[in-house]
Amino acid sequence: MANQDHAKRKSGPAARKASGPTFAVAFGGGGARGLAHIHVIEALDELGIRPVVISGSSIGAIMGAGMAAGMPGKDIRAYAASVLARRSEIAARIWRARPAKFAEMVETGLRLGQFNAERILREFLPRGIPDTFEELQIPLRVTATDYYGHCLTVFDRGELWSALAASAALPAVFRPVMRDGRMLIDGGIYNPVPFDILEGAADILIAVDVVGVPSVRTSKIPNTIEMMFGATQLMMQSIIAMKLQKQRPDILLRPAISGFRVLDFMKMDAIMAETASIKDELKHAVEAILKRDAA
Questions:
Q1: Collapsing DSSP states into helix, strand and coil, what is residue 116?
Q2: How far apart are alpha carbons 267 and 84 in whole angstroms?
Q3: Strand 182-186 to strand 177-179: parallel, antiparallel, or no bridges (unpaired)?
Q4: Which of 33, 49, 244, 249 is deepest in the core (most CB within 10 A)?
Q5: Are the CB atoms for 52 and 14 separated by under 8 Å?
Q6: Which of 190, 185, 210, 192 is nearest to 262 (CA)?
Q7: Continuous H helices in 97-223
Q8: Mean pLDDT to the nearest integer, 180-201
Q9: Which residue has the higher pLDDT, 282 or 89?
Q10: Who wins on pLDDT, 174 or 63?
């Protein structure tokens, strides 16, 4: 595990391979909107690009773990579609992730509506995700927010699943994750698109922002949960804007996901259709950089 100091540490200029420049990818948080990351993974596969390192916050950490484990984008898409296609399948997996005993439910206080993130992930993610960072095929850096430490925490070694659970522990949906004496919540709260923790790690840095902004305008006042998620989006976009003033990735992708909510996982087909253009956008951006560097 590494803390915020690790996140700011530069690894120095990446060595260029004889076959071309190296790439690093940062996948941002955004709940169901992060399904759009699949397009990016597929595009990289089609371009024959294997990142030298990946970072991710929240859903971005989960997608990054799939890629780092060696799953092609088409396999990630097929697996997600098989899990999210039927409400009955989702309900069954959530039911299996419930606390086995009432004593476990009230261990740290009755938390109705707050799921155990690691249990949920183990029910929903493919079995090909390993237990440790060291077993991944591509180095991965996973962010979480240290609730009482008031800082970013970056995991890149040791046990993987609790790191993914911490990164995805969205308040009001998942209970915090305890690891190494720290209470950890959603990594996107502190670093929505963690491209800065990859500074100097590769020749070309790609960042994918799927945070979005509240966009559905109606005369109906949003309910409490919708307001909380919308306010969080605004906060995250403010963080991203400030980071971009200091440092910009070589390629910044922002797929059209603002029309979807953080828990719209059942709308996978619509999300994928709405964001399909991101594949060509990434390919064109990579080609432009390669032509520029070759000139």
A1: coil
A2: 8
A3: antiparallel
A4: 33
A5: yes
A6: 210
A7: 102-105, 117-124, 161-167
A8: 96
A9: 282
A10: 63
84 token code pair:
């999210």
Tell me whether strands 151-155 and 23-27 are parallel, antiparallel or unpaired.
Answer: unpaired
Phi and psi angles of residue 152, each rounded to the nearest 5 degrees, phi first: -80, 140
CB 212 within 8 A of CB 33: yes
| 88-100 exposure pattern, b = at least 16 Cβ within 10 A, e = fewer | eebeeeeeebeee
Q: Which two tokens stand for residue 128?
A: 């090909």
21 pLDDT band (50/70/90 cuts)?
very high
CA distance 40 to 25: 9
- 193, burial (CB in 10 Å: exposed 0-12, middle 13-18, buried 19+): buried
Hey, what are 156's tokens? 């890149």
Q: Whole-number mean pLDDT of the chain? A: 87
Residue 144: name the closest of 154, 134, 159, 135 by CA. Answer: 154
Measured CA to CA, the distance from residue 3 to residue 5 in angstroms comes to 5
- Look up 75 and say whether it is catalytic: no
Quick check: 209 and 28 in contact, CB under 8 A? yes
Catalytic residue of the set 58, 162, 167, 258: 58
- 2-16 average pLDDT score: 40
Catalytic choice (156, 186, 196, 203) = 186
User: Which ranges of 33-72 would DSSP assign to H, the alpha helix?
Assistant: 37-47, 59-68
- Does residue 186 have an active-site annotation? yes
pTM: 0.87
CA dist., res. 20 & res. 203, Å (int): 9
Higher pLDDT, 47 or 293: 47
Q: What are phi and psi of 172, to 5 degrees?
A: 80, -15
Amino acid at 190: Y
Q: State how far the Cα of 200 lies from the Cα of 250, in Å rounded to an integer.
A: 12
Predicted confidence (pLDDT) at residue 281 exceeds the cutoff of 90: yes
